Amino acid sequence: MLEEGGVEASGSRVDAWLPDLHDLIEHERLDIHFQPILSLRQKTVVGVEALARPHRMRVGEMFAKAAAAGRLLELDRLCRRKALEAYRHLPTIGRTRPLLFVNIEASVIDRAVVHSGSMLSTVESYGINPNDIVIEVNESKVLDPDSLRKFVDAHRDLGFLIAIDDLGAGDSNLPRIAQLRPHIIKLDRNLIAGVDHDFFKQQTIKSLVNLCRSIGSLVLAEGVETLEEVDACASLGAELFQGFHFDRPKAPVHLDLPALLPALVSASQRQRDNAVDTLHARKQVGSVLHRLAGIACERLQDCTPENFDLVLKELVQNNPEIEAIYLLDSQGIQVSQTHMSHPVIGLKSRLFGPAPRGTDHSYKEYFFSLIHAGLQRYTTDSYISLATGRPCRTVTVVFEHDSDQAFVLCIDFKVST
């Protein structure tokens, strides 16, 4: 049977690689490399992740062979001990040494090796405070949720920090993560790659950031490789960053953490500048959208209700910024057709598509927030329209018609990604 990494787990082929594995473990034939973890807000290197680098085989191959040979726990502890040994000699930045991020093999947790005290005794034997250690766990690979909870609770009580690794990959369980209340949650590289031009990834990360904040966890964007990915993740709320854009994993002797500080300061300043530019752009766009909505209301006030659809159709034809436009009465019931800038193609279910006349919108955020808060105008955040499948932002405006009736004009404006 093939184990993870393509390792043959039975027969003579096992005998061929077993000596190499035993030699690696017995003679500690692996090195530790560190990859920095940075904070733009603090403008400093807050931690380093320890990554095992075997001398004569690939990393995935090493762990797969150890699992097949029943020596995974030994290898896990060897890697951790080597990491602590290298970390002890890591220079400080200012007065503090960066936190050490170490991975715990999921199967070790499944074996309920919780109260063995191995982690604490090993850390203390090197004179290191548990508060300086971040234990990384990939919760989606742990089969026994109860063992995972006990492991996390026990080590948190001992003073270790807890990080959930690779959120957004595999079978991540959001309710379970919320119950674990980790100090740090690392977003998987699959979510980060190309996030600067992917609206769906942006919205996913934004939602995960909101979850993390609600349970008191910091968000770490793992695997950032470009300036654009760093800026996008920062704007979406990530606090910590790790990836090739800042530095690759290196042997401790080649690690130069102070050399990263100028790039950090630059990235932090760029984040502030981007936030200011975004605010100004939103104000400018908002001004244009609200002006257009005001013009539309004036047009509707000057015509009879029978001609509402004609006016709406003309407005959407003459204003390319508009995705869709429709009209509600004071109870949230749609009294016009939905007029689209482009015909909707490919949506076959009646659950999707433009809302017809008579649809009840009273439960929609852009209606009840407007009416019940006593506002004259309301603008939503960007979202994916169920009618078109494209990003949009809805502006709603209340206006009084000459017939003494109140109406709510709804305009879905296009959002560029």
Explained architecture:
The protein has 417 residues and is of the alpha/beta class. The protein has two domains: 2-275, TIM Barrel, CATH 3.20.20; 291-414, Beta-Lactamase. Helices cover 40% and strands 21% of the residues. The chain is built from 13 helices and 16 strands. The chain has helices at 12-26, 59-68, 72-88, 106-110, 118-125, 145-157, 174-180, 189-192, 199-214, 227-236, 261-301, 308-318, 365-372, and strands at 2-3, 7-8, 30-39, 44-54, 99-103, 133-137, 161-167, 184-187, 218-222, 240-242, 322-329, 339-340, 377-379, 383-384, 391-400, 406-414. It is elongated, with a radius of gyration of 28 Å. The two termini are 46 Å apart.
Average of pLDDT: 86
Order of helices and strands: EEHEEHHEHHEHEHEHHEHEHHEEHEEEE
Strand segment tally: 16
Instruction: Give the DSSP E fraction (strand runs of 2 or more residues).
Output: 15-25%
**CATH classification class of the largest domain:** Alpha Beta
What strand order characterises the main sheet?
3-4-5-6-7-8-9-10
Model regions low in confidence, pLDDT < 50 over at least 5 residues = 1-12
| Total domain count | 2
What is the CATH homology-level superfamily of the largest domain? EAL domain
Q: Report the radius of gyration as a whole number of Å.
A: 28 Å
> How does CATH name the architecture of the largest domain?
Alpha-Beta Barrel
The helicity comes to 25-40%
Largest sheet, in brief, is: 8 strands, mixed, barrel
> How far apart, in Å, are the first and last alpha carbons?
46 Å
